[in-house]
Amino acid sequence: MTKGGMESVEVFTSEGKGRGLKARKEFLPGDVIFAEPAYAAVVFDSLTHVICHTCFKRQERLHRCGQCKFAYYCDRTCQKNAWLNHKNECSAIKRHGKAPTENIRLAARIMWKIEREGSGLAEGCLVSIDDLQNHVESFDNEEKKELRVDVENFLEFWPPQSQQFGVQFISHIFGVISCNGFTLSDQRGLQAVGVGIFPNLCQANHDCWPNCTVIFNNGKIELRALNKISPGDELTVSYVDFLNVSEERRRQLKKQYYFDCACEHCKKQTKDDLMLAVKEGESKPSAETVKEVIQFSKDTLEKINKARMEGLYHEVVKLCRECLEKQEPVLGDTNIYLLRILSIASEVLSYLQMFEEAADYAKRMVDGYLKIYHPNNAQLGMALMRAGVTHWHAGLIEAGHGLICKAYAILLITHGPSHPITKDLEVMRVQTEMELRMFQQNEFMYYKMREAALKNQKIQVMPEPSNETSPSLFHKKE
After folding, report:
1. From CA 129, how far away is CA 294, in angstroms rounded?
2. What is the pLDDT of residues 153-176, one digit of tens each?
């Protein structure tokens, strides 16, 4: 089954998984398999005043809707483009007295669209909203309680003059949002800013080692090929970060998406040995020592999270150094607990302008990531970019340029050349290439010019560290 704009894929029944998507033609790494606008989407509650409600871009100055005083837009163009979806919402917010939560706003936008267009197949969609999985029958008691509260709050918000829907259908929509909501990121792809429903993307099944990735770019999601895909191959994406052992990934998938992962990497526990690696040789630690260090690492990560929430970054650095001192004689270079501490330490030290130490930790982190992640993984590309920028700031131009080039090669595939983060990276690549040539011609003069440049311009402060990792694929209400 295919539909307008989706000629390259078709829905099929995937053994043991239900519906899935498969390719109808060959794709090469970096090819866009399809681009899909949101059926409906909203900005997160905490960001409604700093993110445009139409294009989801972060802007310093936004125009506020004069009627409801809730929605914000880049300019009149974005406001005009939003009116079809915002019109009912605007009057409902004024009647209700305040805006409801993001889940209720998203459910309302979905149902106003159904009111306008019906619940059948929308233009360009392979499946209807009615046919999307809701997994309500798999909800535990706490989730069922939250669902009842959402339905009650929705009914309070929903205008009496709009088409009335039954409780069962409203529950279905909330179930669809819960297990099919896709995280929308800002224009640079660095922060999760909203949630949307994309019916075609919802048909792509999970694999821990997928052949596709998903990126939000210029108001649409793009499904992009990570490696060569032949006609008839199933198209898969990863719902969770690969940087967890198979047992933990399966636990996450069961809890969040209600299925047991049976991918090859989970069945064979591929790379689990790397992620749990310990030091080898004559000084190989005992199982008891490894257990103690892992527990110490878990406890330290909790303390780090608390310190980061309070903005105590020097305390974070102190905790990281203490943890690394315990980890280094015991854990292998690819152990995930070591890599997590290295990642936090490099990010926070960069923010504190301690670039040389940050660069050392960042290099060790990406060396571990390169042995674990898929070679075209977006998280790997972003980590290489951060490490490259850190080395560049530290004056390590050769290593910095090399890491930035590796990152650029990956992001060309995962994000594409038109994505803002790829464009930023291309500027960095050109700049570091120019500086590297200068360094190779006259190392002494390079450092003198660099020193002079740093004196004459305020050093760029790295973004403040946050507890939030790179935006995950699907949004799950906490």
Report:
1. 45
2. 999 999 999 999 999 999 999 999
